Predict the 3D structure of the following.
Amino acid sequence: MSTILEVKNLTIKFGGLVAVDDFNLDLEKGELVAVIGPNGAGKTTIFNMLTGIYRPTTGTIKLEGEDMVGLKPYQFAQRGITRTFQNIRLFANASVADNVKMAATMHAKDSLLQSFLRTPKMVENERELDEKVMDLLRRLNMADKADLLAKNLPYGDQRRLEIARALMTDPKILLLDEPVAGMITTELEEMAQLVVKIRKDFNVSIIMIEHHMNFVMPIADRIKVLDFGKTIAEGVPEVVQKDPKVIEAYLGGALNGNA
Ligand SMILES: Nc1ncnc2c1ncn2[C@@H]1O[C@H](COP(=O)(O)OP(=O)(O)OP(=O)(O)O)[C@@H](O)[C@H]1O
Ligand SMILES: [Mg+2]
């Protein structure tokens, strides 16, 4: 395996608060790493730095050797890092298919003039885009819901749609921020299977933030545990699960089914 993402000494301060303190990660191609930790530990803030929304106070982010710090969010996306959000962000009154399609617009090749004229090239691009959307929806078992409005989907499907949108830009690295938050128990297993399938079928590396231990343990290659911005433990799930620091900070309650 080779390293796709190299994160070193990533630190961000908001006023006096060190929200993330010296976070390090070498993500291998095809790897699935989970980041866990209590509320406010700094998990989402890491994603905000890994997608160019926040610029780290110090530290480096290298994607396939390229220095990413200082690039804009769209440049992170263009280079292959995309994410989903903790709070679902969809176009509620647009169809499932259009939600996915719109995720690709930043890569659209058409000029404004072409789109007014509807040149043959434009029509061809549009057809290719529609095909890609349907192909993606089929692979995520959502093709039968293509015409439904996003707001009418059950919650679990809205999360799935968010992932479909993220995949539309052909990411190398997919960042999932609490993909099962708010889901009912029966939906958890389905989402776990989907994440495993996506990683294989789409050939992506995944970093996943989660609270649900039962969800993370069977599917993550490695787990990093954050508490108050600091990494307090990391390793394979079986080892992290037994780490006394982790149990004290977080897992004790969670493993007993309280999270
Ligand atoms: N833009 C900001 N300005 C000031 N403080 C911030 C900002 N963004 C995040 N923080 C603070 O950084 C800390 C980490 O927040 P973050 O959202 O990363 O936590 P989290 O681990 O994702 O928590 P949760 O599990 O609740 O989602 C919190 O104390 C938060 O209030
Ligand atoms: Mg968060």
Residues 1-80+170-259 form a domain with the Rossmann fold fold (CATH 3.40.50.300). The beta strands are 3-14, 17-28, 32-36, 58-63, 66-67, 81-83, 173-177, 205-209, 222-227, 230-235.
